[in-house]
From TrEMBL:
UniProt topology in membrane: Multi-pass membrane protein
Domain Cytochrome oxidase subunit I profile: 60-553
Name of the protein: cytochrome-c oxidase
Gene: ctaD
Matching SUPFAM superfamilies: Cytochrome c oxidase subunit I-like (SSF81442)
Length: 601
């Protein structure tokens, strides 16, 4: 490692030690009465602490309230989503022309690497933790997380992780390119990642390791919370579906992330101390692939299971029916969790492994589609003959289901060895993966934000902008990623900064046309996300205030969950400030209006 790299690493270590020391020494963080679940004491024997919750910046730096930490996770996830989205737009602009439009090959490789790591580790996992932190205690009737301080520490490990992962972009100009962004792709395959003489790779690996530690701490906390903090009226039979998926996800994290951490430490040792874990004369480059994908494929389900839980929770609310086959949705969640550890080598069909091993991994990869199909049929059956209300959350749930079907079916093709050998490392894989990551996970996240927006803010968002966000996202997603599926069939390799093949793979004009379509779809997606951010900020500050604890009119169908009961109690105990006129709430998406207008809601 370079001297500058060692100094930066040492400073970061000192900072982290100082933060942890401060967190362990500050007393009485919870100097306010928790208001989360039904566990708040009442009556003459109730103990009420007089000191109130801090305000301003001190509140956010010292809070251990699960709701505040959930909001911090959400802000962090949205910032990472914006950074990763800008990187994605640079990639698409680069590929408008066959020779590359704006980036050199090194810059392209750096942005491609950081885009993948940012979206998976800095957006995907934290944005799920945002919902889980805020709502799991509310849904199960707990006052807070089982370990509030560990919950805070897990979040505050993430900002330095992001700075380490992106460090190369900031340091390259001031170190005269001695420290550059990593150019290993997000999979960090050896021998490239082991031999690339760039301290930025070490910083990226350290940041990735730190994010894994944070995710593991959070997983332990969620498991302990669901097992030990449930209210007296919440048992395993009536535990909500979102909590089931978070519980399964947390178990996957406990088994998967420590393995990634171990592999990263081995790679750092290879890079800096001359070990040969992934060298040809040692363990071999394929050892990294086995270790990485044994983590990497459960990671896909770590990311997608909680969004499945969000859709399973939200979609029935606007279908006017309870989730069809609740137990089978739970069983399919557990089945996916178990099977996800037996499919990793379908990423390695082209490496020359024993055909008998390949066949076994193909069988499990095909089998894991069954529990996913069970969920899909249950979502569709829940909507069948239901009283659908096409609110923004419902539209995003429906979009999730349709995109998930496309992403799932294309995944079944890739699970078949003969097809995978043809399409491996082409844009078909990129299209399939992004149908899941953006078309499914992203849509479920948007559904959750819109559904719980009144709980977060006490206000309602603009209905028209919410639906515009959906339609632009739906059109942009399908145009971009369906074009990538077509590029895969044309043989376009992934990760290439240029594509001047002179007809060796497909007619250049045909490849260029589909790249133009993909870039056009990406711009449509960008416009949709700009509308989303504007709607989020403007409605948070100036949106009509919610006067009722049931803004979606869920009680009519018996669908009012515990978090809305808590929200109603919060509104009742809040000091009134004049509020908004009751008629104004009727302009919001799904607010309290007459039954004759339900179709518009």
């Amino acid at each position: 490692m370079a001297v500058g790299d060692l100094v930066l690493t040492g400073l970061m270590a000192v900072l982290l030690v100082g933060v942890i020391a401060l967190l362990t020494r500050i007393e009485n963080w919870r100097s306010y009465t928790p208001l989360a679940g039904g566990g708040t004491a009442t009556g003459e024997d109730a103990v009420v602490l007089n000191r109130e919750k801090p305000t301003g910046l001190i509140r956010w730096l010292t809070t251990v309230d699960h709701k505040d930490i959930g909001l911090l996770y959400g802000l962090y996830g949205i910032i990472a989503f914006a950074v990763g989205g800008i990187m994605a737009m640079l990639i698409r602009i680069q590929l408008i022309t066959p020779g590359g439009a704006i980036l050199g090959t090194n810059a392209y490789n750096s942005i491609l690497t950081s885009h993948g790591i940012t979206m998976l580790f800095l957006f995907g996992t934290p944005i799920i933790a945002a919902f889980a932190n805020y709502f799991i205690p509310l849904l199960i009737g707990a006052d807070d997380m089982a370990f509030p301080r560990i919950n805070a520490i897990a979040f505050w490990l993430l900002p330095p992780a992001a700075l380490l992962i992106w460090a190369g972009f900031f340091l390259a100009p001031v170190t005269e390119n001695m420290i550059e962004p990593a150019q290993t792709s997000w999979t960090m395959y050896a021998p490239l990642s082991a031999e690339q003489a760039n301290p930025g790779v070490d910083l990226m690996l350290l940041g990735l390791h730190l994010s894994g530690v944070a995710a593991t701490m959070g997983a332990i906390n969620f498991i302990a919370t669901v097992f030990t903090e449930r209210g007296e009226d919440v048992n395993w039979a009536n535990l909500d579906i979102f909590s089931w998926t978070i519980l399964t996800q947390s178990a996957l994290i406990l088994f998967a992330f420590p393995l990634l951490g171990s592999a990263i430490v081995m790679l750092l040792l290879d890079r800096n101390l001359g070990t040969t874990f992934f060298a040809v004369e040692g363990g071999g480059p394929l050892l990294w692939q086995h270790l990485f994908w044994f983590f990497g494929h459960p990671e896909v389900y770590i990311l997608v299971l909680p969004p499945m839980g969000l859709v399973s929770l939200i979609l029935p609310k606007f279908a006017g029916r309870k989730l069809f086959g609740f137990k089978f949705v739970v069983y399919s969640t557990l089945a996916i969790g178990v099977l996800s550890f037996g499919v990793w080598a379908h990423h390695m069909f082209s490496t020359g492994m024993d055909p008998r091993l390949r066949a076994s991994f193909m069988a499990v990869s095909l089998a894991i589609a069954i529990p996913s199909a069970v969920k899909t049929f249950n979502w569709i059956t829940t909507m069948w003959n239901g009283r659908l209300r096409l609110t923004s959350p419902m539209l995003f749930c429906i979009g999730f289901v349709s995109n998930f079907i496309i992403g799932g079916v294309t995944g079944v093709f890739l699970a078949a060895i003969p097809v995978d050998l043809v399409l491996h490392d082409t844009y078909y894989v990129v299209g399939h993966f992004h149908y899941i990551v953006m078309g499914a996970i992203g849509f479920a996240v948007f559904a959750g934000i819109y559904y719980w927006f009144p709980v977060f803010t006490g206000r309602m968002y603009q209905r028209t902008l919410g639906k515009a966000h959906f339609w632009l996202s739906m059109i942009g997603t399908n145009l971009t990623f369906f074009a990538m599926l077509a590029l895969g069939y044309l043989g376009m390799p992934r990760r290439y900064a240029t594509y001047q093949f002179d007809g060796a793979i497909a007619p250049l004009a045909q490849v260029s046309t589909f790249h133009l379509l993909a870039t056009a779809g990406a711009f449509i997606l960008l416009v949709g996300q700009l509308i989303f951010v504007w709607n989020l900020l403007q409605s948070w500050l100036e949106g009509p205030k919610v006067e009722d604890g049931d803004p979606w009119n869920l009680e009519r169908d018996g669908m009012l969950d515990k978090e809305w009961t808590w929200f109603d109690r919060k509104l009742e105990t809040a000091v009134t400030d004049g509020g908004e006129d009751a008629e104004q709430s009727a302009l919001t998406d799904g607010g309290q209006v007459d039954d004759q207008h339900d179709d518009d809601n």
